[in-house]
């Protein structure tokens, strides 16, 4: 499209993308989906599934916390069961 109005950010790695989450926390034009390891004492300590944004951005942050030792099947399931349905509902421009 000539003008981008809705953006999806997909962050998948071992650490939660807390900086990206913070930037878009109240932004309803950007859907942030983060798949990461999450457990007590593991850096950065954020990224619980209950962290979903606030204000106009409520529901536009999606965290998929995984336990230590997660593998390809867990990532596949997060994509199939969380990322793709969320992307279909949000309908990003890019």
Listing every helix as H and every strand as E from the N terminus to the C terminus, the arrangement reads EHEEH
Mean pLDDT: 96
SS summary, helix count: 2
Uncertain residue ranges: none
What structural category characterises the helix and strand content? Answer: alpha/beta
Provide a descriptive summary of the structure in words.
The chain has 94 residues and is an alpha/beta fold. Helices cover 28% and strands 21% of the residues. The chain contains 2 helices and 3 strands; from the N terminus they run βαββα. The chain has a 3-stranded parallel β-sheet, with helices on both faces. The model has no long low-confidence stretch (mean pLDDT 96).
Which key terms come to mind for this protein?
single chain, 94 residues, alpha/beta, 3-stranded parallel beta sheet, 2 helices, 28% helix
Briefly summarize what is shown.
The protein has 94 residues and is α/β, with parallel strands linked by helices. It has helices spanning 18-24, 72-90; strands spanning 7-12, 30-37, 61-66.
Secondary structure: elements and pairs:
Blueprint: E1 7-12, H1 18-24, E2 30-37, E3 61-66, H2 72-90
Parallel strand pairs: 1-2, 2-3
